[in-house]
C-alpha cells in the first residue's frame, strides 16, 4: 500500500517520540530536561546501567552513544516490537488519532475478500476443534495423549481433528450459509472431477491451524492418522491468504517472544515447535513442509538477526543444513547471519526434551555453531586430504563458496576463519619429527616446516619488540600513540568515539585500555581533566596504563607533553587513526588480491593493488602547512614514529 504525499510528515508532527519510547524505558530525570524535549535513559537495545540513550523530542529522533542505534518513532517500533513498516505506521496513526488513507477500490475489494476468507477459516478452526472432542476424535485424542500433549498445549495451538468422510466440513459450512466459492477459495474443499459436490481437503487428520503475523488463520496443516496414507503431513493449497514459501508456523507469538530477547529457533515441524514452546523456548517457528525459502529466510531475519536453525543430526538433517548454507551465503550482511543447532542423531526436539529435559536443550542452544563451521564440515567430512591435488580441490571449493558472499567485510572474515581451520587440519608436523629439526612436533597429516623459535637476546627482552611480538610493530606504535593522546586529552574521546569503538586493538593491553577509556567516557568523565579519567582507567587497567605511559615514544610525543594544546591533540589523533586504518586496509586489500592471483592477473586486480597503495600514500601525506608551529609538532611526531618503525624493522631483521 502506498501512502499519499505528506501523510508521513503529518504523522511525525503529531507523534511524540518520548511517549512512544517512554513505554519501553525509564527516563533518567537527573540528566533529562523534559521542558526542552531532551530526554536520556538506559538504552533498550543493549544492556547498560548508564543513560546513554538520547531522545530529541522536538526533532523526533533518537540516538544511543553506546550501541549507535538511531532512528525515529517508526524505526523504534519496528526494532522493539518486531513490526513491519506498515504495521508501525498503522499503530502510530491510531495513537495519534489519524485515519489511515483509504485504499483504491480494487485493493479494497481484494482486502474485503481476504477478510471473508479469513472468517471462513475461523469457522473451520471451530469445526475441527469441536470434532476433536466427539466420539470420532477418540483415536486422535489418544494419539495426542501418547505424545504427551497437554490440554493446555492443545488449546494454545487450537489443535483439532478432521474426521473421515468426504464432505463433513463442506456440509457444516454450507449449513451456516457460507458461499461455495469462499469455501473453495479458502482451500478447505476441492471441486470434484466427477460432477459431484466438492469434497473436503482434509480427512482423518489431526489439524494444526497456521496463522500469519497478525493472528489470522490462513491455512491448516494436517497429520494423517492412517499410517498407510501417502502424505503423512498435508498443508492447505496456496490461496489468496496462504503462500507456503512466505509463511511460518507460530509466526506471531514467536515474533513477540523474539522481540523480548528469546532466541529465535527454526525447527522442522509443528510438533517440534509445540514441544519447544512447552519447554519455554517460545520464539520457535517452522517452515511448512519444505526447505526454507529465500523469502522465509528474509522473514526470519526480520524477526531476529541470528536465527538458530535446529536440525536432526542424521544425514538428511546435515544435507538440509548445507542447502541452507548455500542459500544464505549471498544474502549475509553485517549483523545478519545464521547459527545451527545439530541434535543428536535419531532425536527430534520433542524426543530430546522428553528424554533429557529442558536443560539439555538449553545447552545445545547455547552451543549453536556458526555457519562457517557447517560450510567447513560439508567440504571436509569423510574426506582424506593426503595429496596436494586433494588439498587443492578443497581450496578451490571453499574459495568458490566464499566468493558468493556479497558483503566484503563478511567475506574477509570467512576467509580468515577458513584459513584458521585449514591450519588446524594441515598446519602441524608429522609425528616423529625431532623438536630441534625445524618442525613443530604434533600429529596430523601434511606437516609444514617452521623454523625453531629463537629466544630473545638479553638486550632486547625489555625492548619495544618484546612488547609487540610478530610483524605488527607499526600497529603497536600507532595503537599506543592513539591511546596516549586520547587519555591525555579526554575531550577528544567524544569527537572520535565512533572510530575508537571500531578500531581493532591487536595488543591485549591496548584493548583493555580502550575499553576502560570508552567506559569512562560513557560515565561522563570525558569532560573532566586527564587526572580524573586516568583514575577511572587505573581502576580496571592500571598496569596497562603504567606500561603505556612509560613508553619512550609516548613520553616524548608533543600532544602528550603539551596537555593544554587540544587542537594539536585533535589533529594528531585524527592523523594516527587515519594512518592505522589506511595501513590495515592496504594490507587486507593486498592479501585479498594475492589470493586472487591463482588465475590470470587482470586490470581489475591491478587497479585494486594501486588503490590500496594510493590509500596508504594519502594517509601518510600531511594536510597541514608544516611551516606553522603546530605543523612542526605534527611533523616531529610523525617523523619520530617513522624512525621507531624503521628501526624496529631493522632490528628484527638483524635478530
Automatic annotation (TrEMBL):
Residues 616-635 are annotated as: Disordered. Residues 262-346 form the Toprim domain. InterPro entries: DNA_primase_core_N_sf, DNA_primase_DnaG, DNA_primase_Znf_CHC2, DnaG_bac, DNAG_N, DnaG_primase, TOPRIM_DnaG_bac, TOPRIM_dom. Transmembrane segments: none annotated. Binds 1 zinc ion per monomer. The keyword DNA-binding applies. Keywords: DNA replication, DNA-binding, DNA-directed RNA polymerase, Magnesium, Metal-binding, Nucleotidyltransferase, Primosome, Transcription, Transferase, Zinc, Zinc-finger. A zinc finger (CHC2-type) spans 43-67. RNA polymerase that catalyzes the synthesis of short RNA molecules used as primers for DNA polymerase during DNA replication. HAMAP family: DNA_primase_DnaG (MF_00974). Contains an N-terminal zinc-binding domain, a central core domain that contains the primase activity, and a C-terminal DnaB-binding domain. Monomer. Interacts with DnaB. This is DNA primase. It comes from Defluviimonas salinarum.
